[in-house]
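Example record used in the benchmark description.
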Amino acid sequence: MSQKKDEAVAAVLALLDLLAGEGPASRFEAAVEEARRQGVTGADLRMVEQIKRLALGIQARLERRQQWSAALATLVDTASDLGSPHTVEDTLKIITRRARLLVGTDVSWVTLPAEGDDGFRLHSLDGHVTMLNARLRLPEGAGLAAAVLAHRAPLWTPDYLTDDSFRHAGELDQWISAEGLHAVLAVPLSRAAGTEGTLHVADRSVRHFSADETALVNMLAEIGGVALDRALHLDETRGEMSELRDRVWQAEAELAGARGLFAAQEALLDLALGGCDPQQLVEECRLRLDAPVLLCGAHGAVIAAAGDLSGRSREEFTRAAKEAGTPWDPSPSLLGDGIWAVPVLAGGHQLGALYVQAGPVLGDGTAELLRGAARAAAVLLSVEGGGGTVVEGQVRDELLADLLISVPRPRDLLERRARRLGIGLDQPHVVVIARFEGEAQPHAVTRASSCARRMNGLQTTHEGDIVLLLPGTDPGAAARTVHDELSSLPGRPPTVSGSGPVSDPGAVLHGYREAARCLDAMTALGAVGTSASTHDMGFVGLLLSDQVDAERFIQSTIGAVLDYDEQRLTELIRTLHAYFDTGGSPTYAAERLHVHPNTVARRLERIGDLIGSDWQRPERALEIQLALRMSRIRRVLREREEPAGDTARAQDA
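Model output (C-alpha cells):
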C-alpha cells in the first residue's frame, strides 16, 4: 500500500509540474493514465483525477487572463494610436483593423448614416475578398446594425443568414453570402452627439462570441467613437482653415491689385500734372493696360495713339467713336469688336474720349484703371487748353470720389489735397445726394458742380447719383438748398437727402451711406421729388443714422415740454405719460393722476401750445411716445448713477 501511495503522490507531483510549466492539456491526462498503470486505484485514483481537473481549470483561467491581458494591451495600443491626429477615413481603418485582430475574426467594418439619405452605408471594410460591398447601402431599420441601434447594446448571431430575429436586407445578405460569413457581432459606435453608427466583426465559420470578446469589441467601439468625433472636428477645422487661407490669399491678391491700381493711377496723374506730351501719356496707358489705346478730342479728332494700330484699326476706332457719340457715363462702355470707350470729362465738360481695344470682357481692375487714365487725360487736356477752372473742377471731383471709395486713401494725402483747394476736412461738413429719375442730366451735373464751388464744397457723380460735400452742420438746410438749385432745371425735380455733419475724411463714406439710406427711405415712403435729412425724418432718422442721437430726437420732439416743467415745476410730462398709458383718455388720465379732468384738459392745451396743436395726430403721437420712453430710460439711468456718486461724496466727507 505504501508503494501505491507513493505512485499517487508521484502522479500528483507530475500534474503540479505540468501546471507550473504550462504543459498541454493532453499531458495532464497522460499523467493520470500513468498512475493507473502503476496500480493506483480507489480513493487515490479519484484524488489524482480531481487534482487533474483542478489543474486544468487553473490552467484555463490562466490562459483566459493572459488572453484578456493581451487584449487589454492591444486596446491600449489602439487608444495610443488613435490619440494621434488622423483623418476620418484613417481613423475608421484603424478601428476596423484592430477590431478584427482583437477577437481573431475574418472581416470587420463600420456602418454610418448615409449623407442626405435614410439608412446606412458600409465604411472601411477590412479582410473582405469581394467587391460587392462598393457603395453598399442598408435601408433604415434593416440588418443587425438597426437592431443594435434600437437596443443601444451589443448583439451577435452565430449564423447571420439563418437568423430570423432581425430584419434582413437583400443587398447585405448577398454580400454576406458572397463573403462566406456566418457569425457576426455588432456593437454601438458611441459618439459625443449620440450613437450614430455600429462596429461589426464577422467570421467565416459558425461560432459563439464569448462575453469577454463582446466586452472587448464594445470597449474598442467606445474608444473609436471618441477618436472618430475628434477626427470629424479636425477635418472640419482643416476645411475651415483651408477656406480662411483661401480668403486671406484672395484678400492679399485684391489688396495687391488695389495697391497696383492706385500706383498706376498716381503715375498717370503725375504725368498729366507734370505737363507731359499726350503721346507720352497714351504710351504709358498702353503699357499699363497692355492693349492698344487711342485718345480723341471732343469732335472725334485723333490726338494720340499707341499700340499695334494699323490704318484700318485706327479707322475702326474713329468710326466707332463717331457712331457711338460722346459718352457721358464715366464707366467704360463696349462699342463692339472688343473696343471700350470712356469719356474724358472735366467739371461737366466733355473734352474727348479714350478708346482701348481690350477684348470683349473687361475686368474690374482694368475698368478702374481705364477710368483713372481718362481722368489723367482730362487733366492733361485741361492744362494744355488753359482751362484752370476745369482742372480745379476735375480735381474736386476726384477728391470726393476718393473719399467715397471703400479702400481708404492715406489721411494726410487727402487732407493735403483738400487744403490745396481751400477746404478743411477737419471742419464740419454735410453730405448731400441728389437723384433724378433715370440718369442725371449733364446740365444738372454742371449746376451741382457750380453750386459746390460757390459754397466751397466738393461734387462728383457716384453710382448714378450727384453727391456733394458742403461745409455746414445742418444737413436738412443743405439738402433744401441743393433741391431748390436743381429743381429750376427742366423736368421733374430731384429727390435730395442729407446727412451729417462729419468732421473727418474717413467719416465721409459713412455720411454718404447714411444719406443713401435716407434717400432710399424717402423713395419707399413716396417722398420722391422732395428733400429731407435723417434729422428731419423723426424716429425713422434714428433707424437710418449710423450714430443714433437720442438726445437730439428727445429735444426736437418734447424738449419744449421738458423745459417748461423744469422752469415752472409743472407736471406736463407726467400728464403726457398718463394720457398715453390710458389710451388717450383725459378722464382715465385724471383718475390715474388724482386730479380733476379739467386740470388734465388745461395741461393738454398747454402741451399743444408748446409743441404744436397737431401733436395728437397718429404720426406725431407715435414720435412723442417714443421720445417719452427714451426720456424715461435716460432719467432712470441717470438716477442709477447718482446714488453711487452721492455715496462716494458721503464717504469722502
